[in-house]
């Protein structure tokens, strides 16, 4: 029976850690970075059949229902219930031939049939978004004119500040992280923290329907828990944005709207409802050492390339920005 075989790439220095073998002709061999295109299309580098090792370290071996080349793509159907359909697609990009391995899910995520707008959100001519210091692979908002700065946020992963107060925050979740945090109860505590802010939301980088495609947990249990959390904290929407780029776009527009609303409330002298969480004991968010170092150099102040800054440098920065004195010794 014909099989698709995935083995570890014996070349330890290669960034493509796997070899994919397909039974077409004398055999097609590709170097690739994963064992299945689950979250994104995988780049494949065509290799000579002779690169297939004589004694491969097989990671996965799956029987094929069909493997046929149709035009510029190879349709691959595996003999299993899930993750059974994929394509090897030959295309051109950056002036050269390229090959990608994609599944129906990654194809839909890559082309959700929408184009995110580049127009700024109303009132967001100058928008600074704070990114939690613990956030891995953060949004950069490349299609919008946004400044980002790293801070330790009391709640959420992305936030905006007005007058030293965190006025809105967004908690970002991949689907796997959402399911894990629901099952462990972490999301309940995260929503409790977000509820202390004037405005907050949770954005999920996937579709609601994928909750019911989970195999390691009961989908109904996850759905019921999400419904209970939404009823308990109705002011904190849980938004399924389908893809990471759409989640990033939604986050930008939510935070821009929240900041504009907070400015309007301040302008008419209205107190923000509910408890307000501040980033640093009632003061403006603490700048990083790198930010103060860059400011000092712009002012012609001599500072070292690494290590702590002198107390007088912090004092001049605080005086220039109207910041109260703080504990600069914790910055290193």
From TrEMBL:
Domain ERCC4 residues, every copy: 128-208
SMART domains named in the record: ERCC4
Record-linked SUPFAM superfamilies: Restriction endonuclease-like
Superkingdom of this protein's organism: Bacteria
InterPro entries named among the record's database cross-references: E3-bd_dom_sf, ERCC4_domain, Lsr2_DNA-bd, Restrct_endonuc-II-like
Keyword DNA-binding attributed: yes
This protein's name: Histone-like nucleoid-structuring protein Lsr2
Organism, as annotated: Actinomycetospora flava
